[in-house]
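Q: I'm writing a short explainer about Thioredoxin peroxidase for a general audience and would like to include a description of its predicted shape. Could you first generate the structure from this sequence?
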Amino acid sequence: MNEYTQKLHAGSEFPVIKVPTLAGAEVQLGHTRSPYDWQLVVVYRGRHCPMCSKYLTQLSAVTEQLHSLGVDVIAVSADSKEQLERHLEELTVTFPIAYNLSLAQMRALGLYVSDPRSPEETDHPFAEPGLFVVNAQQRLHVVDISNNPFVRPELNTLVSGLKWIRDVNNNYPIRGMRKEVG
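A: Of course. Here's the predicted structure. Afterward I'll give you a sentence or two in plain language.
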């Protein structure tokens, strides 16, 4: 058992995680901006990861669809302000990105954490990918945590699934909450 990683459970309350944005504001992950009532929180490895850059670009392409479902979008990494500023020179995104995710915050989110392989990669420990959909009650509706950048939810499938979940006629509950008995 890994003493450093405690996974978040579907249906549990999203932890209080506050991080800065380049706009100078501090945001609390899982808390939406008006007019949205749900939030998609994407944790990515950082500027050093080309797969993360690709995923953020793909996320930008579906952001309008997510917004139409009432889902706000934010991404965050452990990168510094300077690293994020340089990364944004290479990206075109349509959602806010926060930075300075701490080790304690990574652990609170149940993320896998890696050390850089070299100083050229990056200069700090970083979170492996995580994706969290937080509902209007601040509960985890969807949780996806990976230990490497090669396994992440396919975004068009995620959008389609959230469309199904958000349709009140489907009465779709949070999945994965069955309690073992006996």
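A: For your explainer, you could say: The chain has a mean pLDDT of 91.
Q: Perfect, that's easy to follow.
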